[in-house]
Design goal:
Layout: H1 7-21, H2 25-42, E1 54-56, E2 59-61, H3 64-69, H4 74-95, E3 100-105, E4 126-132, H5 135-148, E5 154-159, E6 173-175, H6 188-196, E7 205-206, E8 209-219, E9 225-238, E10 246-252, H7 255-259, E11 268-280, E12 283-285, E13 296-299, E14 308-314, E15 323-326, E16 330-333, E17 337-339
Parallel strand pairs: 3-4, 3-6, 4-5, 6-7
Antiparallel strand pairs: 1-2, 8-9, 8-11, 10-14, 11-12, 11-13, 13-17, 14-15, 15-16
Helix pairs in contact: 1-2, 2-4
This protein binds S-adenosylmethionine.
S-adenosylmethionine binds at residues 56, 61-62, 67, 70-71, 80, 106-108, 111-113, 131-134, 137, 161-163, 177-178, 187, 191.
């Protein structure tokens, strides 16, 4: 632990403690706001952050400005802070006697995945590699590290595409939050696949697991949900999962599903993709509890009652391009997609 006279560092320590111990939603909301306010003081102020996002081969790197704002997704942010603590604690048992080298893949300008850790571990216990595609994020991070007096934790600030980056100094553990619901839009999967092969402690990755499952959801003409039918798992991303970048998952539809629908009420039927995240060590983000676990609904016409459906999309590509194919015949590229419940 560091005993710095710096008042900003003391504030960081106070906020981190509240993040670790504040269980009520209102406390979590307040502490993430306080974290953002502190970062505005010590890092690049929010209104000076660039607003340009960048397209990569495997998804979009959101703008520094948007990456700064996601801190306010308080359940996500705090789950990642606590998960990072557990990850480093577990790695300490493996590396015994030397610092844990922790890579943050996609730091954003104010990375809550790293600064809180500096109040829990000394720089002899923890060394940080910061990676981002935007120089503005790395500049902001370095400024904050200097102003907080924690620059000695940082071994490198790497401007690179994390989907292809080859580390010279291999990290022991790594963390990435570069995702949208159902692993669309952002390059989380490509970053995860590239990083998990390079870390020295197998499986020491945040998130530990992302699981996407599918449901049929039936609504009446007033758009009220009347019936939900589970289809099963679409994808599981973890340290043992194959390096696939596409979803192509088929499901059988039992006849009983069609019998339960009241066809007189002009039902609207959607395929719902549901996301759940295990951050690390039992810390989970439940479906619809954060912007990265919102449900995605793809409307689907089942008038011809297909007996199978296939869900197809490219991980990291737009959610608008999710396809649902009934009986491999009536290919549908639906445009009416809703996010959120
Ligand atoms: C959702 S933000 C998360 C920021 C921060 N780690 C947090 O948890 O609040 C995702 C960050 O990943 C970066 N990023 C996205 N794709 C990337 C890539 N291919 N290589 C490096 N950084 C990337 C973005 O620039 C952005 O800063």
């Amino acid at each position: 632990m560091r005993n710095s006279p710096n008042s900003e560092y003391r504030e960081l320590k106070r906020i981190t403690k509240a993040m670790l111990w504040g269980f009520r939603d209102c406390t979590k909301r307040r502490t993430t706001k306080a974290y953002l306010a502190l970062m505005e003081k010590v890092a690049t102020p929010f209104n000076e952050l660039p607003k340009n996002s960048e397209k990569t081969n495997y998804g979009t790197a959101i703008s520094p400005s948007t990456a700064g704002k996601v801190i306010l997704d308080y359940r996500r942010t705090i789950a990642y802070v606590i998960g990072a603590k557990r990850l480093v604690e577990r790695a300490q048992k493996v590396v015994a006697g030397r610092p844990v080298v922790y890579a943050s893949m996609g730091t954003g300008p104010y990375d809550p995945g790293v600064f809180p850790l500096t109040t829990m571990f000394s720089s002899k216990q923890l060394q940080i590699i910061a990676v981002d595609l935007h120089q503005a994020n790395l500049d902001s991070l370095e400024k904050a590290a200097n102003n907080l007096g924690v620059i000695d934790y940082f071994v490198d600030f790497i401007l690179a595409d994390a989907t292809t980056l080859q580390f010279i100094t291999k990290p022991d553990v790594a963390s990435t939050e570069t995702m949208c619901p159902a692993l669309t839009e952002e390059p989380q999967v490509a970053i995860y696949n590239n990083t998990k092969k390079q870390i020295l402690i197998p499986g020491a990755m945040i998130p530990e697991e992302v699981c996407i499952s599918a449901f049929f959801v039936v609504r009446d003409s007033a758009y009220k949900e009347t019936y939900k039918f589970p289809l099963g798992e679409v994808l599981r991303l973890n340290s043992n999962s194959p390096d696939c970048l596409e979803v192509n998952k088929g499901f059988e539809i039992p006849k009983e599903f069609y019998r339960k629908i009241s066809w007189m009420c002009q039902p609207k039927i959607s395929i719902r993709l549901r996301t759940a995240i295990t951050v690390f060590g039992g810390i989970i983000i439940l479906p619809n509890k954060s912007s990265i676990t919102d449900d995605i609904d793809v409307e689907f016409n089942v008038c011809n009652k297909p007996s199978t459906i296939t869900i197809q999309y490219v991980l990291g590509a737009s959610y608008r391009d999710i396809k649902v194919i009934g009986d491999q015949r009536d290919l549908q590229k639906e445009s009416r997609i809703r996010i959120g419940s």
